[in-house]
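[scheduler] slot 2 assigned
[scheduler] job type: sequence-to-structure, two independent chains
[scheduler] chain ordering preserved from manifest
[runner] begin chain α
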Amino acid sequence: MSLWAKVRELEGDSLRQIQNLYGQNFPIEFRHYFADIIERQQWDQLDPDNTPNDEPHAKYILDLFLGEIQKQCDSLIEARDFVQRLHFSEIASHFKNVYGPAPLELVRTVKRILSIEKRLVQHAHSLIDGGMHMRNDQHSEKLSHINSELKRLAAMTRDTENDLRQLQSNQEYFVINYQDSLKITSELQQIQQLDPSNPNRQYETQLTRKQAEVDKLLRAEAQKLQQLRASLATRHEETFTHLSQLQNQILDEELIKWKRSQALAYNGVQHESNLDQLQQWCEQLAEIIWQNRQQIKRVELQRQQLPINNPGRDVLPDLNATITALLSTLVTSTFIIEKQPPQVLKTQTRFGATIRLLVGGKLNVHMNPPTVKASIISENQAKALLKNDTSRSITEMSGEILNPESVMEYHPQSGILSVNFKNMSLRRIKRSDKRGAESVTEEKFTILFQSRFSVGGNELVFQVRTLSLPVVVIVHGNQEANAAASILWDNAFAEQGRIPFHIPDKVPWCKLIETLDYKWKHECHSSRGLTQQAKQYLGYKVFKQIVPINSDRQISWAQFNREPLPNRNFTFWQWFNGVMELTKSKHLQKHWDDGAIIGFIGKAESQDKLVSKSLASFLLRYSDSEIGGLTIAWVAESDKAPGIPRVWNLQPQTLRDYGIRSLADRIKDLDQLMYIIKSDNTTQVKDEVFGQYYSKTISSSPQGDGYVRTELMQHIPNSNHITNVSIMGDHSAPNTPASGYEAQLSIHSPTTVSHHNNIQYDVPDMGVVNNFQQANDVTGNMEYDDTLDCLASCNIDVNELLSRQL
């Protein structure tokens, strides 16, 4: 079912939002008749700001649309289709004029429309779930309330506009009568100066009576003007009260909620991008505020033209201050970061960000496009910036950013005023003097974006600023994991309206494990998150006792990523991040999705699970003793007590190992492994689970050059003599047998090559075996390399080896 077919099923407020999406630059008729061709395009692969690379593709799509319109026009040959054919021709002509010079604007417009359509359809379909039904009812009710309030304020503004016009008309009528009164007074004074015998003195009584009537009328009109002015001021006060309440709801609730969602998105929480909806609301607010401000200015002008003493308090200055403050708050609050810079920022590395002014198009800021400047400041500087007056500028920065300035651009098709920084780079950073246990990966900075522009023909000048989410600056890749921990904790547990960048030192375990679950699913690109067993395992790893998943027991930052785990030289986060990096890699991600990796299970628990299974059963678990290691535990016959099952553990393997030979092929190589226990506790033959991932078998025939190809294979040396194998135990569970195998890779030819005494050579490469694991520093950060460096260093000549005389 196409997206447009689902859109047509929307009702109520969602349908009204859809109708507001379309206009002359992208008519709803085009969306309806050409829905299939629109939705077949790969919009997600196009960036409207990537002119050099994506503009040719955008031009192709525009030409495609124009061609389809022409085909449709050619098919409309009946007389009754004349109007429709004419309308399609107008659409094509408008597309050529608007998008021909800038085809990427078509991409921007369509992507925005499709994004909003998808969001509204998802909201409508999520009503199937009961709890979601209630939440969406509340969300729909909130949307309906905001839209109805905006309509109400627009109606109130129209009413005050009508009152203002009536007041202007009455004032003009008063002025005309007042001029008549002055004329009568002048004539009366002239007559009174005449000689009593003058015949014109007979008009004195008539003029006196007429002047009295006009004066009476003027007094009545003056009182009416006072009443109208007071009534208009009261209605403006009412409008401004409702306007302030609605603006607070949109800016302090909805926009703040969007910013909070943006921060949580780093941790993997789904970010509902309703920024276009927020812009529509803010633009309507800006229009209403601007109209009311213009009304107040006209009232001031009327009072200057006709001063009338007000018996009560004059509220006009307060009204002027209130409406100007509302406009200032709206403008400064809607200068936002649409796309945040990376929160783990490495020096000498290019990065970007997108800044957007939600009301820029409505207030015509683009008529004199402002320049936005980026700079990096420290946590203390951010605190000082928020405490001090916004008019003060920061002269000393905490670092130097290359390419820090760019001019905002207006996109008329979407009505968006934004600037896209693409080539910024942090050249250097100035750190503060740290005390105590805090490390450089816990020090936070922020990117300050600021600009200055005028509204209303330089009548109002705004200086706007916005701060990015906290940034941790690193200079080396081995600092990245610890920096990511600081950002994860901050994004998850920062409170609204905090002092930069205060965070709680302790949080409930249930909140942290929920954060880790989101992070895991996001990083591993998997719908399969942390299972109940995994969460219990992680709780035990932290507290060394069983902790309920919903426990409010506090875990401190020190426990999370400052103090090493017992008997280890790495922290809880470093271990968790290591297995997450391992699992999200191309080598293991598919196996995690398939449920082949249990992962989060202790050594003792895995032994209990395996000992009751058939011989050659195995499972995959993360190593407790090594960061980013995966081990295989399997059950085999005991070497000391034949017939008695015993659980063995393979030496942990890391990304470097799987870059040499995949997990599936390693499992295929070992005949000791036959039946895998999956995460759902079911058992399957290994070929059923891993068969689709096995590498193709190398041909046994000699190649064109006469050589027989070889391949690497994993095997367990001396597997028939367990007592001769070095114990490689994982010390995570001292009370269980520390039994383990060290798997080795051997060079294997698919054909049996005999020489002299018909000896088949199996040559283990001990250099490969002993150099798989990379030494970890105390922080537990690892740099992986998927090449065959370790093999190249062995300098093995296979042909010389096979022909060697014994």
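[runner] end chain α
[runner] begin chain β
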Amino acid sequence: MASAEWSESPRTGETRSCRVWNIVTRIRQGQITGRGMNRGTQIPEALLNERDKKAKWYGIPVLLQKLYESSDPNSDLLQTHVFLKEISSLLSKEAMTFVTEDRKTAQESTFPNTYTFDLFGGVHLLVEILMRPTLTTEKNKPMSDDLIKDCLSILYNCCLCTEGVTKSLAARSDFVLFLFTLMTNKKTFLQTATLIEDILGVKKEMIQLDDIPNLASLVQSFDQQQLANFCRILSVTISELDVGNDDKHTLLAKNAQQKKNSSPSQAEINQATVLNIPGFIERLCKLATRKVSENTRSSNFLQELEDWYTWLDNALVLDALMQMASVEAEHSSTESSDESSLATSPQRHHLPQSMKIVHEIMYKVEVLYVLCVLLMGRQRTQVHKMLAEFKLIPGINYLFDKLIWRKPTTNHVLHGQNQNCDCSPEISMKIQFLRLLQSFSDHHENKYLLLNNQELNELSAISMMADIPEVEAVVNTDRSLVCEGKRGLLTRLLSVMKKEPADSSFRFWQARAVESFLRGVTSYADQVFLLRRGLLEHILFCIIDSECKSRDVLQSYFDLLGELMKFNLLAFKRFNKYVDTEEKFQIFLSQINSSLVDSNMIVRCIVLSLDRFESQTEDVKVVEVLSECRLLSYMARVENRLAFLFRLINIISVETLTQENVSCLNTSLVILMLARSKGKLPFYLNALREKEYAEKYPGCILNNFHNLLRFWQQHYLNKDKDRTSLENSACICFSYWKTTVSVLLSPDRTSPVAIASYIDEAYLDIDKDFMEE
């Protein structure tokens, strides 16, 4: 397959006139014949040799010429491999520098050898060599595994060290799909998976898993180690792409986008694809819950783990080391189906114990992430059923003390759910575990699987003592699928939560996970179960005594406190017992007022609870709490409720509404719905009007609120899930939400409950088209 151009390339010292080695002459000849140069290495060898030392190319262009000439598929490719190894030795040093140096320093460095390799068409040539067997019907001698591995390793090194290489490979969809076919070979799996992961990370359009040839049989052929690494690739293909622009995270933009693209996203299609692979979820559950060798050195384990991770930040790199340690055993045995064999294999005993543990931790991080994404997808019900059936929760409960939360971790920076981070494996493990618990418990009756049999019996006893019906989901829970041992997973989490350092950002994830257990229809038994374990006092200590400054942690604690106290007389009594001085109460109020976006859920809880308690004044216990509780007394004053209402409306607008702050709009609606139920809606609307004039901005608040409610109608009326969440959060049926918004938006300016009636004609601006771009 060598072209005429190559056959005419002169060797150094040849001067016969028939040889066209002058570069200018060659370019001109190419223009005339239409057979111009299309590779950097088609430059005459004499010129390359002449420039090599001055340009510090280290012979790479000439080696690429030889690589091309020797790579004819009809040859045995032995010589090709020799040239490839020579090139690899020149490039691998730069890749190792990138891996071992501080990333910021490495990215600012230059990698001349890799740059030269790409400049002279080396990347394109390796892709061509790898794909040649697929481009011809002729039967050629198969490439050796070692040759394929070296090609893939060089391509990965180029992706690391040379800007633009990864994107150029990602643009070749045929090559990306071809790479998946190489994963069937265990000997080339690691190199292939590493390269695919890097490419998919920059690919503009998400790959369609359905396009991968024989995907189901490919995945089923993976052993447990390969499947765990495949999860790193899956995580890119089943997660929604982060648009990276805060403006596009607004509900207005999201709704507009959903109207344009009403069909499922590619990520959702890919999620359905992997769920249809037989046995896939069951194997992930086994990976997530498989036990790790018990004979680990304990004292310096965490520090060792951190030290190794400073440069081993890729599970696939770590796999390569593990594979090297086990290579001597390959000829005599294949990998055991026993999941614990990986951690106990004698061939690996000369590796540091911390590396063996981090290996397993990195696997679980990837698996838990994939399960978490699937739990939040369209097939949530199907995934929930399978995770319960395959006993994921009892398995994780067993590992909690042994691996997931061996001991408290050092403080770290809080990362968003979709944010890439370079946390250590141990920290990543904890975050993914907490995210999984949050997704598993949120608005689903399977949340009771987080308890053991004794704890479920306790819930039943609480209901019986309160003379209320037992929660149906508790009665229907399959006891064979719940946690085993002395404590369930929720109780274990509460235990470590109370021991977490005051300034630890893990508090955010822990509070979110516990809050998800309480979300949904308010359950008195669930609340009392947690109150008995000191959760309320712990939250108040964090908010008041430790004077937490983190907005994220504060928000998660206020949300949790709102769910824990809502309608619960015992919770308000315990609150008043803890907040027993005016100084503590003022600190608590100060924390609420520091950011209503973060604290509005506790405001909603207090308003709703006050309204219910005021309707139960025939009960002496209720009257006692109403008269003694500082919190309820404070909210009972109408001027305080109006102050919250004014601020809640004033800090948001249609253009700034997000999933984070839309709760402010709904809390303001709760205040007005309760006012409407008592015939006081005109009083509240008039108070808002007076506030506008006092602030010398007539029409500002009410026009903004009118637009917010118009958006509310468009956002909620067609979203069943969001409607259910609203009903559960306030115990107010959605029809009442809907009619309240309707009367507030009435165009009748004579209506005493219509917003338009309280805006003077000169300041009326309620027809704004906020659905414009």
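[runner] end chain β
[qc] chain β: The CA atoms of residues 707 and 725 lie 22 Å apart.
[scheduler] slot 2 released
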